[in-house]
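Researcher: Next sequence.
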Amino acid sequence: MRYMCLIYADESRAPKEGTQELEKIMGEYYAYGDEVTKAGAFKAGDALLPTGTATTVRVRDGKTLTTDGPFAETKEQLGGYYILDCKDLDEALAWAAKIPDARNGSIEIRPVWEFPEQAP
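Model: Next structure:
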């Protein structure tokens, strides 16, 4: 089963560009990526730019409304995700616990809804 691991962390506490702290955490992310890929669980993943680059879209009464920024006011922001293929939730939990930002933020794990293939 595929699981999405959503990485949430406080952007205001993120290491700054060009610092040793950022180099260290990025090294940890590269090592995690290598480990999960070699284990065959990695299916997809990306880091997201900061919330200042986000735009939220809503449709109300047939009108499209856009707002700069993320959809909700929170202390932790969605910073990236992994999609992992795991035999069960326990395996997904084990991989999620190894994501470096699990120490500073939180990792939300959700099963991917698998739809049956449709004929063209």
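Model: The longest strand covers residues 77-85. The chain has one domain: 2-111.
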